[in-house]
Amino acid sequence: EAYVHKCVMEELKRIIDDSEIMREDDGMWPHPDRVGRQELEIVMGDEHVSFTTSKIGSLVDVNQSKDPEGLRCFYYLVQDLKCL
After folding, report:
1. What is the pLDDT of residue 70?
2. What InterPro entries does this protein's entry cite (predicted)?
3. Comparing C-alpha atoms, which of 52, 40, 49, 42 is closest to residue 13?
4. What is the pLDDT of residue 2?
């Protein structure tokens, strides 16, 4: 849990909206394994989504998955959030 300024929250919301991650489903993404796991939970207004997948090493992992488009959306969103 963290407290951030209103402008940071607005930027987070913009990035999440632009990513269209709220439309994705992690059902076909790689399951967490011995390498690790990534989790992301988003609550925006009355929408609540939660994603879990294995560690993604590179876009090669994304492209070899059963849902490359959805996982690519997740991958790039995580990269964008790391930049904040």
Report:
1. 98
2. Mago_nashi, Mago_nashi_sf
3. 42
4. 84
